[in-house]
Design brief:
The chain is mainly α and 194 residues long. It is built from 8 helices and 2 strands, in the order ααβααααβαα. Helix 6 runs antiparallel to helix 7.
């Protein structure tokens, strides 16, 4: 009975995460971003009807926005867990960092593939074209590097090269997130208000 209740609660949690994601855009920001999207050569213009995707490729690619939060959080928390382990030497931080790093490596692959799928549904012009190019390659690099760092930890354990690689992975995932935020919220989203 308890297992069924836990399974039911987990399913409800999963569905609330899948369907509860906010758009994070005001009407003005959405209009500004729509003006910067142009159709690519040989590809029809992708339009939304009330936020609903009109092509299967766009629908599949839109899962990128759900998956991307996992590798970001897992990589950041792996770094924090490794710091806590080095300070307190508690095994729980060792187990947690190992689990989170492997999970980040696993989740980063479908996240990158879904991002590539979504990128084919529209082309960007101007500064957003630069953002999507850099974001795409930084995302692919993050996925590959996350797998490399996970293997490095399994093979060499805690070493200077592992800690250096984890720090570089932490920087890379944050740069990738910054570029993705630039496409979602606009290229100047991190500028302070004047």
């Amino acid at each position: 009975m308890n297992k069924q209740l836990i399974l039911c609660l987990l399913c409800m949690l999963c569905f609330s995460v899948l369907f509860g994601h906010e758009g994070h855009k005001s009407m003005e920001e959405s209009k500004t971003q729509q003006e910067s999207i142009t159709p690519s050569s040989g590809q029809p213009t992708v339009k939304h009807f009330g936020g609903r995707p009109l092509t299967w490729m766009q629908w599949v690619g839109s899962f990128h926005f759900i998956f991307l939060h996992f590798p970001i959080a897992l990589i950041a928390m792996t770094a924090i867990s490794e710091l806590l382990f080095s300070w307190f030497q508690r095994p729980i931080f060792d187990y947690a960092s190992r689990f989170m790093l492997i999970a980040a490596a696993v989740f980063s692959v479908p996240t990158a593939l879904l991002g590539l799928t979504y990128s084919y549904t529209a082309s960007y012009s101007g500064i957003l074209a630069d953002f999507i190019w850099w974001h795409m390659w930084a995302g692919i690099s993050t996925a590959i590097f996350a797998i490399f760092v996970a293997f490095l930890r399994e093979r060499l354990g805690r070493s200077k090269i592992y800690y250096t690689s984890l720090f570089l992975l932490f920087l890379l995932v944050n740069i990738t997130g910054y570029l993705g935020g630039g496409m979602t919220f606009g290229p100047y989203h991190m500028h302070p208000p004047l």
